[in-house]
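Trying the structure run again after the queue cleared.
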Amino acid sequence: MPVTFREKSLIVESDNDSELLRETAPLITLQHMSQVCRGWRDQVINSPSLWASSIDLTFMDQRTPYWRDEVIRRTGNACLTVVADMRDQDNFPLDFFEDLILVHWERIRKLHFVVTKLDNNVLTTRARAIILSALRRPAPNLESCTAVALHEPSDEASTANFSILFSGDAPRLRSFILHGSMPKFTGLTNIRKLLLFDGHFNLDINSLLNCLRCMPKLEELAIESKITRRSGPDNDHHAVRLPRLNTITVYTTTNSLPLLVRYIIPAAGCRLISVGQQFDTVSDRRIASHALAYSNFFRTYTSLRDIGYISYHIEHGLPTFGHEPFVDLRVQCCDSPEYHNMHATEHHHVFIESDVSLQRNRNKLSSLYAVAQALSQCDLSSVTFLHLVLEENTIPTSCTQFHAFLLALPFVETLRTDLSTLQFLIDIQSTFSDTIVLPGLMTVRLTTTGNGRKGALRDFMIYRQSIGFPIQLVDIED
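Done. Tokens:
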């Protein structure tokens, strides 16, 4: 194996990911690699970049500092990847960690610092102080930084008065994940990924927008904190345009969602993800709040006809809503000939997907109703394909909003669904017998035959025949 290729392979295998902790210590990986043959051993021992990418303090808690000092010596002048996970660790090498941060800070390329908020002892207090001090210093080589639970359990919103991050000097920083504080972002124009987590403190919308204005290259934004409007902007002229932003995620705080999407204008094709807790009882106000957010999100586009793909699904209780180019390899149904033909003619077609098969709150389908309410006010005349899967035995207590959504889809020709959902559609049509649901439907594609009542397909076919809108083709997927 060529030496250069071998070295690259070793670096990939041993490198820590600053956002995901590995189960196997990178130093152990290096040890195993060094035992393959003499060539590999020489490569491992004499490669500073390999050692520099393997500093996981979880596996460096030896009683004496000899091994830790030896690892640092072998890193030479290479940029460092440092993982400091203090969760459930009684023997954390704090002195070594402090030495890394104080002495080698400008060499650090990736930093991952985690401590649970429940920990409140001398060790964690000192570690937090070390990190907070470092975050105020210039970081010329830092590319990725994760800092989780920076505040003490007794701290409140005082951490919002954090000083300027990295003194505004971190030219290579691309990814920043912060939990427990809200610093001032100044001069960090290269950030692509920003995640701010901590539902215990509030974010003023003005402060957030001022922060985002400094990040023209931002591609991914996630916020857990509640967004307030103590002195917020009065009109949409204060909105921030982020031409590269392709993913917005808002956690838990439903009321913040409409405010956030109103003042952030992302890239065309941006994906909006609203992650909220599931409740046994979901109020109409909460549904309306979601619907307003989705409607505001649509207003960032001149016309729905310009959007090639709209997706909405719920996975493990997490509703996702967004839109992307029509031909998408992640969508299984896009391999059918009719969609290739539609794409070849360069017609605009909207694809709507709604999958709530794993939603815990089965009785209300609140998120589905919210997006249905928002979309029912839009021009969906170009929608020709609908993907809809509901959990088995789902019995919604109110179907009005969802019925309005279906009425806004008169030109849907193909429905991708399962047996349970077919029964649900029969119930919808029976409840609102004065209107025809999906009058243009000709093809039904079943994703599975294992769920739902076995006679649902037959009943659906008979029912459509009886109302004068028969199904012409049924395609059962393997």
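The chain has a mean pLDDT of 69. Worth checking whether this holds up in the mutant runs.
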